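Two records follow; treat each independently.
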Amino acid sequence: MAQKLIEIKKKLEVSLYDNSKPWTPILAIAEQKTGIERLYLALGAAVLVGLWLVFGYFAQLVCNTLGFLYPAYVSIKAIESKSKDDDTKWLTYWVVFSLFSVTEYFVDIIVRWFPLYWLVKCIFMVWLMFPGDLNGSIILYRRIIKPYFLKHEGNIDGAINKVKDSATKILDKAE
């Protein structure tokens, strides 16, 4: 466990100094002005956001912004890059995000009573976009979504075709 935490810390430090990341210039300026290492600045910011998600107003907005804005930004960058790997990674994120959002809609009444819901959801969203082998969206896709989809692909395609045929018939009658 300690070894895994050391690996995560190293990856976090690499990310905090990666000039392709949007937070790097902000952390560089904050580090220069305060004299505090950017690792500690980032961890402090994470703690503040965590406290905000537990006790602050607009926790839902903060959580959903974190789960949407950064992934949208890097998805656009992935689309514009020549590499296919980053496209796949972020497309996988959006598939998992979408399924989670639909599921959340149906259990919303129950989970909102859970006092740490927005904090837990935010941690979950960060895990979904986590780099490397610990990427939650890839893990969930490979272990749950893909096997389920492959098992039921024919039924899903059949249902989609029925809806398409029904819509076509309705539109033909409307003409």
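The next record belongs to a different protein.
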Amino acid sequence: MYNLASDTTLPCLVGGDFNVIVDEEEKYGGLPVTLNEVKDFRHCNHTCNITDLGYKGSIFTWWNGRALDECVFKRLDRCLGNFKFQQLFPGREVSHLIKLGSDHSPPLVVKDNWKTDVVANSFITFNVKLKKVLSQWSKTTYGDFFHTITNLEEVIKTHEALFEADPSHANREKLQKVQAEMTRALHIEEEYWKQKSGMTWFQDCDKNSKFFHAHVKGRRKMLQLKRIQNYQGQWLETEHEIIEEAVRFYQA
């Protein structure tokens, strides 16, 4: 971090598990916080001219997995940025995601995308409507698991907050129950992407949605129409001809 800060004049974002806190408010349970625990990291941030970007969600991003008197929570994961980064992305937001399959809450940096109107020709409009029909079929077949996952994330956040406020065995069991539901929902999502990508050799427990998205896009690219044949048997190759023939065919 020292080298990065001294060599770059560009916007800089640093995030992850730093395995250290900056003050006593970022720890619950365990031994009292001492100055030695926090001074080096504070000095590093000051020297590198980077500041904490803040967060939404629970302050604690790590849990030692125990309950009652043995329970310890800390904020070990964070995102830091220099002044130029904060100027470039004033609308950025850091969210502490739920702990699932790990004792850490991963931080997610989000920035609102630009919104633009899309002007489409008739063929593209038809394509959009077709996608909506297929999307509705997918929801009927698989269930709206994307919505389920979103809801479960909020439920888990609530149970995490309850457990942080009262780390009892009962609250831990409730948290683990909704975490198990999330695991099942993610498994359904995994199966969805496996089928959509047409990959039968995919290994279990090797989930990577970004890879699946890329693979599906690659298949779509290979399936793009370069030319079509009209009712007279003539080959049409220009975009304008293909659009007109597609519209004529579905109007017939």
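Discussion point: Residues 122-220 form one domain. How would you locate this feature using only the token line?
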